[in-house]
# Entry
Amino acid sequence: MKDARTPYDELLASAREREQEHIFAYWDRLSEQQKDALLQQIQQIDFDLLHELYQTIAANKKAADLTFEPVQPIPLPRAEAQKQEAQEMAAVGEQILREGKIGAILVAGGQGTRLGFDGPKGIFPIGPVSQKSLFQLHAEKLLAIRRRYETRVPWYIMTSESNHAATVNFFEDHHYFSLPKEDVFFFVQGMMPALNEQGKLIMDRPDHVFMSPDGHGGIFAALKNSGALEDMRNRGIEYLFYFQVDNVLVKICDPVFLGYHIHQQADMSAKVVSKRDPFEKVGVVGRINGKLGVIEYSDMSDDDKLARDEHGNLLYNAGSIAIHVLSRNFIEKICGNDINLPWHIAHKKVPYIDAQGQTIQPARPNGYKFERFIFDALNYAERAVVLEVDRAEEFSPVKNADGDDSPATARRDMTRLFASWLRAADFPLPENVDGMRLEISPLFALDRDEFLNKIEGKLRIPTAFYLE
Ligand code: UTP
# Structure
């Protein structure tokens, strides 16, 4: 006998089974087009998974049974032998760059809620003098790397449904910032619905279930489903340098970091910085129940945060800055074995519709959003390098509209870094350059050494100056 059940019937039945049938409440008022769109959206929803997640929330399961241990990163090179080692590692990284085995992954699918900028965060103007965008800044670093090592570095950029078109258009409008278009690969991450405090899916329009990007940990599924992973394989890419859109100081494809990772045959590696103070709100790279991972700030007790080692240093000091190298084989392993990273739950404000079908923006958190985090993949790494770097040289993220980690602090930190390069070239600058704006394009110099080589004798500094 022919099965007369339509997709509508089937989805309604699945929704009913999990007491989510209210998502069809406005069905009779929808146009055919709206009905199709809603069905397509509902098709993506994993009702069982959401049910399970809600059970976790309802049971109020805390991270009570987690045990933490610190890890000792490879320290900043201070002694001569350490400097020598870093140089050797740089040579390893440079060689693999020249061989064209490195790709770059940028995750730019987030919503940038805290910054509150209208559009993808990557188009935010950040250059202290040039006002160039975050995307342009990153693109120019990659272009400079390509030129320096006479190589190609394919760039994989993760977007989400809500910012994909705007991101691609921005690159098109700017002619890919002179990068070859065929070396820039956009891929879209997945979306995840939210639940209200009663465990119900949230409608933000009569024809739409609220969904948000599934976190930077959604990258594995997205790399696989989009064909980006296959593209890496076809191009012979062995290692991926991972970074986030908001860090203005990121040393893209840093050969030292790549070198350590390659030399130690690591699966996944992480850069860390020394914490500013015990209560700085960053995750710490450490062991969680014996396995490498990032200990979340909210999971640490004050005792953990304040604990010191025998030298008086913070015990949990390895602040995670979301810069990684991943071996392609490791990504293949995660994707191939369908390893599912855990979901993190956040209580947030989620728009919803009232009985009349009007969208309401709540004033306080009213729902739970679910995200996966890339750093949970460290758990599965059999080998990993944890490398300490200097915050002043490598980490200044644009997260908030003002205050800490804002455009103002990012421009200040860029200015401070460039001031240190200029001083090294004997350019007279006041000790405190805050309030000034200095900028050196990555296309002029990617780092201090390159700057000093290029600038030699070109900066004209008056040795005598007289005004009367
Ligand atoms: P954040 O966690 O800082 O989020 O992302 P955000 O979206 O930039 O800002 P808020 O929290 O809404 O204010 C860190 C990096 O991870 C990317 C972001 O684009 C940023 O580069 N990301 C985050 C994704 O690509 N997808 C996500 O689902 C979440």
About this structure: Residues 202 and 210 are 6 Å apart (CA to CA). The pocket of uridine 5'-triphosphate is lined by residues 107-114, 121, 158, 160, 189, 213-216, 218, 244-246, 371, 399 (CB under 6 Å). The first strand starts at residue 68 and ends at 70.
